[in-house]
Amino acid sequence: MPDEAYDPATGEVLSTRAADGSRLPPPSATLADTIRLLNDGQFDLDASAELRELVQKIQDHADNAKGVAKGSITIKLDIKMMNGAHVVTPVMKVTAPTPDQPGTLLFSDDDGRLSRNRPDQGVFFGTRVVADNTGRDVRSV
Fold it and tell me: Which residues of 86-99 are buried (b: 16+ CB within 10 A; e: fewer)?
């Protein structure tokens, strides 16, 4: 390679070009740059696809939940030093919105047991059987 700069003490070639003459990529300056380097760019593509899918799930859930929904994406980078190089392993966790479950109002007694009835109030009606199918023939459709 003509006009290559080199370190005379070590013989190291100090070049901004690869062996094929193309430019060398610069080192990452930001977290976004680093994410684009992971798994040869595949992690960035996968995370972007997961983000689009999560946004769609949030939109769909919000349409059915009074306009409110949330989700999250957590990206963790495990960094290990090995033989003078850093091994960066990305881990992604996606939390999609889940339908709200209706709550049940219960009261506790002095022993910590739960009941539908307040322990300090009387009860007007006991347990009732809503449907009694005893003695009836079961029909199949």
Answer: eeeebeeeeebbee
Cross-strand pairs, 87: 80
The continuous run of DSSP H or E covering 78 comes out as strand 72-82
Determine if residue 92 is left, alpha or beta; phi over 0 gives left, psi from -120 to 50 gives alpha, anything else beta.
beta
**Within a 10 A sphere around the Cβ of 43, how many other Cβ atoms?**
20
Comparing CA positions, the residue from 57, 35, 31, 30 lying closest to residue 47 is 35
Taking the whole predicted model, whether its pTM rises above 0.90 is answered as: no
Q: Render pLDDT for 88-114 as a digit per residue (tens, 0 to 9).
A: 999 999 999 988 778 888 888 888 889
Neighbours of 78 (CB within 10 A): 9
